[in-house]
Write a structure and sequence with these properties.
About 50% of the residues lie in helices and about 5% in strands. It is mostly helical. It catalyses: Endohydrolysis of (1->4)-beta-D-glucosidic linkages in cellulose, lichenin and cereal beta-D-glucans.
Length: about 500
């Protein structure tokens, strides 16, 4: 068979696979996946992660006020923000990434979120984070980047409402720089400023100004901050965060100095991953959009964006990202679902851009179409929601046979009086170790997910399978909003 014949045969096979895939999703879940429901629940999980004094419209009945004295030891107000995962520590780096990716979703998929009735909830989730980040940067050239002692926290299995563990503070300043966290927080504030520009001008202006100050601080006081290690070590360095922040600041302010930074000072990179630690692919997609709009000086960034999709899509000759037999991208055990939702989000955004501008992704002699890019991104979300070899959902409270034992203190400890002193020594045997469902449903949490062989164990004690993280859900929001729109 000639080259043309093989291409035609491949096209026919791909078409049948697409049809079969749709049937599998239908059969595996007893009907269509309800993306609007998944979107709503994904945002409810973020509300379950809130720290501080909860608002009157709190939608998580088993959560209460917590950590109301955060910052007191340094005479600052650090009440609020988000717990990152199943513990009770507030980490600045992943929290800021949660906000920047949620803001991107709110900007790119505003119409889709509004149609689903979730735009206001998305904005509320962003503001819950930015209100805290503003408090963390109340002093010039100072940013509080962590609240809580993770080692002490991990010695007690207790819900945040009853924790007695130390609320130790870590900060970066001129003497102790942390370029990654300063830049990521700048990106969060810059992107959020665009979200609020039309509905709260003064707040948007404040966020933009703070973002500029933090970027300046991060570039003038350069250094890696290791204080959040071994829990959040920036293995990729800080150049990706600096580019990510510069791109968002350029979009938010249109200031030439950020354009100059992107063109002359930013470090280029070819990557196959998008995560809280590695932001290059996100920046490249954002700049590719500007390239498509006519800013041809960003061509190299557009080419790097293409490289990300060529590295990830299985139809590309340059494909290198590991994929499980069931079709899920798998980078590493432990919160692997964040890479799945990150892939789904970038593939969703890029496919929309390709369709809008009649473009394809060149991967050598192979050209990926907008439909191919869209289908692979959809497949990643569908996998997590139930279209997988286990025929089960990996989102709590959604779909068929969802997880019942997420590795999460608040969800696994029954509500008890706020003044109750918990015996930390007994807490693990009483609430972590029992093999039974959590007493509180952690609605919408996307758990860590299955291993490289599509195997999964719904056990609270196995955190690599069952621990959720905020940035997994923030990356899911945009993809789910787009899928919900298409499903209307």
């Amino acid at each position: 068979m000639g080259i043309g014949g093989r291409g035609a045969a491949a096209a026919i096979i791909m078409a049948w696979l697409t049809i079969f895939e749709g049937l599998f999703v239908h059969v595996a879940n007893g009907g269509r996946l309800n993306y609007k429901e998944a979107l709503t629940k994904s945002l409810i999980f973020l509300e379950a992660q809130r720290s501080g004094k909860l608002p009157p419209n709190n939608r998580v009945p088993w959560r209460g006020n917590s950590a109301l004295n955060d910052g007191k030891e340094d005479n600052v107000d650090l009440v609020g923000g988000y717990y990152d995962a199943g513990d009770n520590v507030k980490y600045g780096l992943p929290m800021a990434f949660t906000i920047s990716t949620l803001s991107w979703a709110a900007l790119f998929y505003q119409r889709e979120l509004e149609s689903a009735g979730e735009l206001d909830n998305t904005r509320d989730a962003i503001r819950w984070g930015t209100d805290y980040l503003l408090k963390a940067n109340v002093k010039p050239n100072t940013l509080y980047v962590q609240v809580g002692d993770p080692n002490k926290d991990h010695e007690c299995w207790v819900r945040p409402e009853n924790m007695q563990t130390p609320r130790t503070l870590l900060k970066i300043d001129a003497g102790t720089p942390g370029t990654e966290i300063a830049a990521e927080t700048a990106a969060a504030m810059a992107s959020a400023s665009m979200v609020f520009r039309a509905i709260d001008g003064p707040y948007a202006t404040l966020l933009s100004a703070k973002a500029e100050e933090l970027f300046k601080f991060g570039t003038e006081h350069v250094g890696t901050f290791d204080g959040e290690c071994p829990f959040y070590c920036s293995f990729s360095g800080f150049n990706d965060e600096l580019l990510w922040a510069a791109v968002w600041l350029y979009k938010a302010t249109k200031n030439d100095k950020y354009h100059q930074y992107i063109m002359e000072e930013a470090a280029p990179a070819n990557v196959a991953e998008f995560s809280w630690d590695l932001k290059y692919a996100g920046s490249q997609v954002l700049l590719a959009e500007l390239f498509f709009r006519g800013q041809k000086e960003f061509q190299s960034y557009k080419e790097h964006a293409d490289g990300f999709f060529c590295s990830t899509h299985p139809a590309s000759p340059f494909h290198q990202v590991p994929i499980t037999p069931g079709g899920m991208v798998h980078f590493r055990d432990g919160a692997n679902s964040q890479y799945v939702t990150g892939t789904a989000f970038l593939f969703s955004v890029y496919s929309d851009l390709l369709a809008r501008y009649s473009e394809t992704v060149p991967c050598g002699q192979t050209k990926l179409t907008a439909n191919q890019v869209s289908a692979f991104g959809k497949k990643q979300m569908d996998y997590l929601l139930g279209s997988n070899p286990q025929n089960r959902s990996y989102m709590v409270g959604f779909g068929v046979n969802p997880p019942t034992q997420p590795h999460h203190r608040g969800a696994s400890v029954p509500p008890i009086a706020a003044n109750t002193v918990v015996d930390c020594g007994m807490s693990f045997s009483e609430w972590l170790n029992p093999n039974k469902p959590n007493p509180n449903e952690l609605t919408g949490a996307i758990v860590g997910g299955p291993d490289k062989n599509d195997k999964f164990q719904d056990l609270r004690t196995l955190s690599s399978f069952t621990e959720p993280v905020t940035y997994c859900n923030s990356l899911a929001v945009g993809a789910l909003a787009n899928l919900a729109w298409a499903q209307k």
